[in-house]
Amino acid sequence: MTRTIPASDVSSSTRFAPYGTTAFAGPGDPAVQATVSAMPRRKPPDRTSTAGEAGQYRRQWRDYRTRSGRRVVRAEIMALEIAERAAVTAAMADVAKHGKKAARHLRGEIHEVRAEGADVIYRLLFATEGRYSQVLLALVFFVKKTQRTPPVQIDLAERRLADWRSRGQEQQG
Questions:
Q1: Do residues 140 and 160 lie in contact, with contact meaning Cβ atoms separated by under 8 Å?
Q2: What is the rounded distance in angstroms from the CA atom of residue 123 to the CA atom of residue 142?
Q3: Which of the 8 DSSP states describes residue 126?
Q4: Is 170 in a helix, a strand, or coil?
Q5: How far apart are CA 58 and CA 135, in angstroms?
Q6: Which long-range contacts (CB under 8 A, 24 or more apart) does 72-81 make?
Q7: In this structure, are residues 94 and 52 in contact, taking their beta carbons and an 8 Å threshold?
Q8: How crowded is residue 77: how many other Cβ atoms within 10 Å of its Cβ?
Q9: Chain-centre distance of CA 147, in angstroms?
Q10: Closest among 19, 17, 15 to 27, alpha carbons compared
Q11: Taking the complete model, does pTM exceed 0.85, yes or no?
Q12: Phi and psi of 92, rounded to 5°?
């Protein structure tokens, strides 16, 4: 709220704009308190809406870290050529935007993202975490060589997910 007042009416708590001509009322000013209390309260957004609608919790990618702090999935993605890395990150952004609908379910809580590079097809196995499944936890990244996802890779993703959760419980407890 901006108002013009004479310099003689200024209290020590009022801050001035350049040249002292316009004062900005502070939070303790009765006029500001009356204005704030008269403002209509906004209803909190509906957080249970479907993907893509307003109020959706923003999904964010996190990468698995070993007990020693190594970020194995991130390291493998960062080792790719720039164009290949762009294809992988675009596929990840698609899942972040559209949720698990943009991925393929494999087993249990493990899902798969497919990214096509110039000559190679990549796969990223992930699981959702968080109260509203807003965390997309990247667990395993590998080059696709067969039609089916190797069970060894799915088992590795499940082990990493169990390790991630057990370390989270250790920190809370």
A1: yes
A2: 6
A3: E
A4: helix
A5: 9
A6: 73/124, 73/138, 73/139, 73/140, 73/141, 74/138, 76/141, 76/142, 77/141, 80/117
A7: no
A8: 20
A9: 31
A10: 15
A11: no
A12: -65, -40
State the maximum Cα–Cα separation within the chain, in Å, rounded to a whole number.
Answer: 82
Structural tokens at position 163: 């390790």
Rg of the chain over CA atoms, in angstroms?
26
In 14-94, where do the E strands start and end?
15-16, 22-24, 60-63
The tokens describing 147, both together, are 């039609």
Q: What is the pLDDT of residues 137-151, one digit of tens each?
A: 999 999 988 888 999
Measured at the CA of 93, the angle between CA 113 and CA 155, to 5 degrees, comes to 30
| β strands within the chain, DSSP E | 2-4, 15-16, 22-24, 60-63, 104-107, 110-116, 121-129, 135-143
Taking the CB of residue 138, how many other CB atoms lie within 10 A of it?
23
Let me know: does 73 contact 113? Beta carbons within 8 Å.
Answer: no
Please tell me the distance from the alpha carbon of residue 30 to that of residue 26, in angstroms, as a whole number. 9
- List the one residue out of 56, 124, 128, 129 whose CA is nearest residue 92: 124
What is residue 71's predicted lDDT score, i.e. its pLDDT? 92
Token digits for 144?
């696709």
* Mean pLDDT of the region 112-124: 91
User: From edge to edge, which strands make up the β-sheet containing 2-4?
Assistant: 2-4, 22-24, 15-16
